[in-house]
Design a protein that fits this description.
The complex is a heterodimer of chains A (about 425) and B (about 230). Chain A has 15 helices and 13 strands. Chain A is an alpha+beta fold and about 425 residues long. Chain A is elongated. Chain A folds into 2 domains: about 1-45 and about 300-435, no CATH class; about 55-295, no CATH class. Chain A has a 6-stranded mixed beta barrel with strand order 3-4-9-6-8-7. Chain B has about 230 residues and is α/β, with parallel strands linked by helices. Chain B has one domain (about 1-225): 3-Layer(aba) Sandwich (Rossmann fold). Chain B has helices at about 45-50, 75-85, 100-110, 115-130, 145-155, 175-190, 200-205, and strands at about 1-10, 15-30, 35, 60-65, 65-70, 85-90, 160-165, 195, 210-215, 215-225. In chain B, the strands form 2 sheets. A 6-stranded mixed beta sheet of chain B has the order 6-7-8-3-9-10, sandwiched between helices. A 4-stranded antiparallel beta sheet of chain B has the order 2-1-4-5, covered by helices on one side. Chain B is globular, with a radius of gyration of 18 Å. Classes of the chains: A alpha+beta (about 425), B alpha/beta (about 230).
Chain lengths: ~425, ~230
Amino acid sequence: MFFYYVRLALLSYRRNPVLSSLMVLAVAVGIGAYMVIFTMNYYMGGDPIPQKSEQLHHIQFDYGNPDIPNFEPPPQLTWLDATAMLEQTTAYPRTATSKFVAIIEPPGNEVRPFFVNGRGNSADFFSMFDVPFKYGSGWDRSADVNRDLVVVLSDELNERLFGGRDSTGETLVMHGMNFTVTGVMDRWQPAPKFYDVNNGSFDPVEEAYIPWELIISQELNRSGSTNCWQAPEGTGLQAFLNAECAWIQFWVELPDADARSDYSMLVDNYVAEQRSLGRMRMPVEQRLFNVNEWMIEQEVHPDETRILGALAGMLLAVCLLNTVGLLLSKFLGKAGEIGVRQALGAHRGSLFIQHLIEAGVIGAIGGVLGIGVAALGLEGIKVLIGSLMITEWMRLDLTVMALTIALAIVSTIIAGLYPIWRACNINPSVHLKSQ
Amino acid sequence: MLKMTHISKVFRTDVVETHALRDFSLHVAEGEFVTVTGPSGCGKTTFLNIAGLLETASGGQYLLDGEDVSSLNDFQRARMRNQKIGFIFQSFNLMPDLNLFDNVDVPLRYRGVNAAERKVRVERALDAVGLLSRKKHLPAQLSGGQQQRVAIARALVGEPRFLLADEPTGNLDSNTAEGVMELLHEINNNGTTIIMVTHDVVLASRSARNIQILDGRIIDDRRAQPKAA
């Protein structure tokens, strides 16, 4: 009977094309608008590295200063602490990382020198974050220690400098120094950019990656947020490095709960040591955050999207309320047919199912149209905020499309419950005489 | 076959109570052709609706094929309608979106008959009313008389024992009405019990049994004398 009912639903659509199309439109607009916001929330609130999000941990120290009311612990580490944590002897992969900008001087005269956004990071960065490589690989820990002039390029920068060919082993001039290319990344754009949410959670990934220590030793131009709560004693780079200024993200990979416990102890010991030196005077509850904990702690998911989500939900509710009215009109208009069907042997249950399926068909058509509305909406959002953040992750994949249709069907069926109940409880004899 | 004993039907609103049937008792045997006449509002259609299980009586007992229908739930009443009763209406009540085949097919769908058997039975029913060649046509493409023939085919396709007709010729001209009546008599001759409500006393006089209703009561129950050989 299912396909029979679907056929009846399509015939019913054809009988009242304007009324039916109004319902489809109401569902499409409501679902489409909702799915635009849902898609944004889905990706913004999604797990950017699900295969490892439980193992990767960000360290946060409470540099609490009792003299400053409402002092919020900074999300980043100072140079002193990042260096100290790197020097801790553990088997766990870890990386200090921060941003820089530099000028690249391409070979020949065809391309003029240009700025790139770069990232200093430890050798473990690439394996910890499952960075995909098109050519070559990252560097090893000895390059960190030796401060080798090595670089990993993004696919785009490799295209720009070397025409997309395998450039491993070649050199490029950056910040006036010759760097050797060890690898070229494949396309990689985690959303949110979890490893550095302090400098644009949805910014594009950096174009060049070098050993983190080079930022200081070669005096590259740091970029990204810096939070100082105590003025440097003196001037110059060394005074800045020794100051209470946080500008470095620090991540460690802890494969299981035992490792987390083990590393927590190490961090606690370090903090105790620092407190004995007069630093880190506030008690803290948690210093290690896995990826998802860190996204929540740093409120990566903007409040605006929640507000928009609520608004879209209200719009969907309004559209569905309209659909309730339209369905009521449509189904009560079929009272004569319902009466005939009852006379011919249909019981209320079968009529109820027939009309549930009819509502579902309207929902399905509305859902398909809603995908188009959502796609248009997302394109509009990209135009609006495309200059503020990377938006290529905002797309309707198969999961979201299937969800759109499913939500449209379920919503319309729910909207149809009252009209269907009313229609199936009419007195058939009244309508049989007056048809 | 159909036995109503002291049936009453009361329609109530907040301010008024209408007695559509009062102390209504009737026994119709298998194979009878009964016409029901009476002025408008006398309770003819209410009687037909109760007989067809489309409405429930307010009181009394109704036995259909020996089964007390007052205890049946909606599902059981629907099944009994589907299996034992065929309906013919004054305004045909065909579904305008469905072609003739699909209109006639409806009762068999609710009975759960498989597609192959449905096809055979629907085509046979349409053939019986002379409209098989137009099975793909929509009702709007037919005349009133043809539409009523389709409605008769739909009523008969499930081979019910009991046919209820509510003014089946009311919307037809006299020639067409004559054709429909001939068809109904033919059906009755084949063993189907028919109860027909009509305003037309000439048609009523041609049935073997005529019941007159007034104010919800049977005031006359007359059987025609068998014709002399």
